[in-house]
Design goal:
By secondary structure, the chain is of the alpha+beta class. 40% of the residues lie in helices and 29% in strands. β5 and β6 form a beta hairpin. α2 (46-53) crosses α6.
Length: 197
């Protein structure tokens, strides 16, 4: 190999090494802590919303990540409602042992105030989250908060992107929850069909 090509190769490798070290150092210095909050107004009382949030059997319908892409397999504890209830999920119904997995565990539940829970994905640190209810005239403000810490180095570099994705996911989840709760309320309040003899 000609000497000048060897020298160019050494410069390229050296440059890549320096860039890698700079990114590693920057990632180590950046904050890894994340905190995301999203809210929505739902035309229902807290008790009606709580029926959906407090029961982990309902969570795949509104709170879970990208159902279409992941098609997760879920296992809900018995009971699956209220404090102590747990939902375990796996990447897909056909997934092998290497697929993504995680767990949600309800820590506290109050029909008038909301649900507090811990969430953990495979190999990650647990996050603390809540879905709380604030009654307003004719509606309830539902607020979903989630906070935790990303892995060292990489977490600091991708914190903003992660928070944007999580914010979009939570906002979409609250819209699905609103639709479910309000549809449920319309069905319950609909008049019984008139019998014609």
């Amino acid at each position: 190999m000609p000497v000048h090509l060897l020298r160019v190769g050494q410069i390229v490798l050296g440059s890549l090494l320096v860039v890698g070290l700079l990114l590693t150092g920057l990632g180590a210095l950046l904050s890894r802590r994340w905190h995301v909050t999203e809210s929505i107004m739902i035309n229902a009382p807290p008790a009606s919303i709580h029926a959906w949030v407090n029961d982990l059997h309902h969570w795949p319908l509104w709170a879970q990540w990208n159902q279409t892409a992941l098609t997760p397999k879920n296992e809900v504890s018995n009971p699956g409602v209220g404090s102590g209830a747990t939902l375990k999920w796996y990447g897909s119904a056909e997934a092998d042992a290497r697929s993504a997995s995680g767990e949600i565990h309800i820590l506290r539940s109050d029909p008038a105030e909301g649900v507090w829970f811990e969430s953990r994905t495979q190999g990650g640190e647990p996050s603390r989250a809540s879905v709380t209810y604030t009654p307003k005239p004719g509606v309830t403000e539902v607020t979903w908060r989630d906070q935790g810490q990303l892995p060292p180095i990489v977490g600091g570099l991708f914190l903003d992107l992660f928070q944007q994705r999580l914010s979009a996911h939570m906002a979409a989840g609250l819209v699905r929850l609103k639709d479910l709760v309000e549809l449920d309320g319309r069905i319950e309040s609909a008049p019984a069909p008139t019998r014609v003899d």
